[in-house]
Amino acid sequence: MSTDYQRARVELGRRLRELRVESPDGRLTGTELAQRLGWPQSKVSKLENGRQTPTDDDLRAWADAVGQPAVFAELRSRLRGFESHIRSFRRHLAAGLTPVQETWNALVGESRTLHVWDSHVVNGMLQTADYARDLLERHAEFRRTPRDTEDAVRARMKRQEWLYRPGRQLNVLMWEPALRAQVCPPEVLAAQMDRLLGVVGMDTVHLGIVPLEATLRLPPGNGFWILDDRLVTVEDWHAELWLDDAETIALYRRVWDTLAESAVFGADAQQVIARVRRSIKV
Predict the structure, then answer these.
(1) Contact (CB, 8 A) for 86 and 241
(2) Which residue(s) pair with 239 in the sheet?
(3) pLDDT digit string, tens, across residues 121-157
(4) Residues of 232-246 as b/e, b for ≥16 C-beta within 10 angstroms?
(5) Are 16 and 108 within one domain?
(6) Is 262 in the same domain as 211?
């Protein structure tokens, strides 16, 4: 859990404690409030100490129990403010992979310029359907989500329509190991390399490959997306971070620009992709 997220949760807990102590009905103890709510006292303690994330229902019940129902809107706003920065995969994938893809379709659809770094797999905006299917199947199996792979693949492919809209620009960097990752059968990976060879030179795609032998000014790190200058998303195993403060966005743009110094583009990028394609034993 990120430091910023935990700090915000602690601050919300302090606000909840303040409301309990300053109740118009008189100061309430944690035990008294728990009795009013029908909760174990430990839940009140965890919420006030930032050790548990409340739900909307928890916040509404708390506001009512301390005699200040009007404060619910403020509490919900605080919750939304820090929950938007970390999207738990356990919660986010509970309904399957398709809703996640549709959320991404909406995010990308609102954007005109993307800057993306991928160090593990081929970027989703450039994947073939077969490559995406194998990758999504692996995620579904690993995360034990509902199996809706075909709908998720269709949603991911629909996102790629963005590439054919005037005024859009995908600036994508991929590390050569991302091209070589055997997350699918050899024939699927070979077809994926053919797809990448075909997108070099597209008006809406600026594709850079960081070769294995390139000198890196920064460690590769996790993949990330910069959507216009309004949002950065970073994926880790447990969650997806959504970061929207200007300083953080600027930091990730500097990371992208620094990684781009090690990349090759155009015909040179095609040579690296072709080298990977030739190494695939179909």
Answers:
(1) yes
(2) 88
(3) 999 999 999 999 999 999 999 989 998 999 999 999 9
(4) bbbeeeebbbbbeee
(5) no
(6) yes
CB proximity list for 266: less than 8 A, separation 6 or greater: 200, 201
Give the range of the structural domain holding residue 129, as residue numbers without chain letter: 88-279
How confident is the model at residue 3, as a pLDDT? 47
Beta strands in the chain (DSSP E): 86-88, 113-118, 169-175, 205-210, 224-227, 231-235, 239-243, 264-265
- The verdict on 77 and 93 lying in the same domain is no
First to last CA, the chain: 42
Last residue within a domain, chosen from 28, 55, 83:
83
pTM of this structure: 0.73
Task: Answer with the residue of higher pLDDT: 108 or 91.
Answer: 108
Return the SS3 of 88.
strand
DSSP secondary structure letters along 130-172: HHHHHHHHHHHHHHT----HHHHHHHHHHHGGGGGSTT-EEEE
